[in-house]
Specification:
By secondary structure, this protein is α/β, with parallel strands linked by helices. It is about 40% helix and about 20% strand. It contains 14 helices and 15 strands. A six-stranded parallel sheet has the order 5-4-6-7-8-14, sandwiched between helices. The longest helix is centred in the middle third of the chain and has 20 residues.
């Protein structure tokens, strides 16, 4: 964009102002209202109206509605896209790996990434939305886990005319990128049912589902998928099912399973956890109670701590459904650039899930040992 502070005596200011209005159109086919041009140029409303009127009269702009304009020819600019990334937090490996992958992909695509941290907190996420709007980003990648905060965040970006991609937790009006939750749950549930058929002759005394209630109905499909997978494969399905809210966290799940085991005397328990931290929290509770042999657990995400547990001899974590957060970046950045280029994009893009087990963990993650992966997290 031409600078407004160039003091050369040869510059014609009216042409400089006109070029800045044209530069406000950032992609081919983009339609801007008068107020959008005011916001992007910083000029007052009267000046913008006169410039838009003149550029339209001269054939540079096409009027497509009341105070709405579109550039007649392709906009050519060397301006670097600024994409905002509102990270979920840094307390667990999954969001850290997503963030690292996004940073690398943005650098490769020559995109400026403006990063803020939602700190796994809804109020912080709403404040961060305001900050990214002030930063005048072209698009926002939102990763926050509170379903109740999603409408407020979306409304802010829609009013600012900023498109949004939502990672793993759907937001109204945003393009979704992430888990196919029901399919992932099916994979984990079928594995639990088949394990019980092989080792317990299909007889299970209790099923415990560890959920993330605050993330809303779509991630809850992960739990529904696990139950469907268990019922599809387990020989005897007349089993009591307990639902606990672990909030996706090690400590919350540990305390919830501790409390449950004080009253439950069941011996053969299938535990389906929405995340690996919850899976490890459940395992720790059974270990503390001296009842490790009473359970088998399947987690989700195949995080480093979960993979380390899968390598432990005689572990009762029999699998974790992988989401490969370390590979999110290229796909998300490609989607962002397609949206900014006004290309046709699907409303949702799902990743491919695979089951990671003690038998195949080294095949899918052969570099863990080379990188010195050890149990350093809360499950250690």
């Amino acid at each position: 964009m031409p600078t407004r502070t160039n003091h050369s005596r040869y510059l014609i200011k009216s042409l400089v102002h006109a070029s800045e209005v044209l530069s406000a159109f950032r992609s081919e086919g983009e339609v801007l209202r008068l107020r959008d041009v005011v916001a992007r140029t910083g000029f007052n409303k009267g000046m913008c109206f006169r410039l838009l009127y003149t550029l339209h009269s001269c054939g540079f702009l096409e009027k497509v509605g009341e105070n709405q304009y579109r550039a007649v020819s392709e906009i050519r600019t060397n301006r670097k896209y600024r994409i905002g990334y509102a990270a979920q937090g840094q307390d667990s490996s999954f969001p850290r790996e997503v963030a690292s992958s996004l940073v690398q992909a943005a650098e490769s695509a020559h995109v400026e990434l403006v990063v803020v941290d939602n700190r796994y907190n809804a109020k912080t996420a709403v404040r961060n939305a305001d900050q990214l709007i002030r930063e005048e980003v072209d698009l926002v990648i939102e990763f926050q886990a509170d379903d109740a905060a999603a409408p407020a965040i979306t409304r802010k970006f829609m009013e600012a005319n900023i498109p949004m991609i939502a990672i793993d937790i759907p937001h109204p009006g945003a393009t979704y990128f992430g888990a196919n939750n029901y399919e992932a749950g099916l994979i984990g549930g079928r594995h639990l049912g088949r394990w019980a058929n092989k080792h317990w002759e299909g007889v299970v005394e209790e099923i415990v589902m560890v959920e993330i209630s605050r993330s809303g109905s779509v991630p809850q499909q992960r739990i529904g998928g696990m139950l469907a997978g268990i019922n599809e494969t387990l020989r005897h399905t007349d089993t009591r099912t307990i639902h606990l809210d672990g909030d996706g966290q090690f400590r919350t799940t540990l305390e919830g399973i501790r409390k449950h085991l004080r009253t439950s005397k069941a011996k053969r328990i299938l535990v389906g956890a929405a995340t690996d931290p919850s899976a490890l929290g459940a395992l720790r509770a059974f270990q503390e109670a001296g009842r490790t042999a009473d359970c088998v657990v399947v987690g989700h995400n195949a995080e480093p701590d979960g993979r380390a547990e899968l390598r432990e001899p005689r572990t009762r974590l029999i699998g974790s459904v992988a989401y490969f957060p370390e590979k999110y970046g290229p796909g998300v950045i490609r989607l962002a650039l397609d949206i900014l280029a006004r290309k046709a994009t699907p409303p949702a893009m799902f990743i491919r899930h695979l089951l990671i087990t003690p038998e195949n963990v080294d095949h899918f993650y052969p570099n863990d040992t080379l990188m010195g992966l050890s149990r350093t997290g809360p499950g250690a």
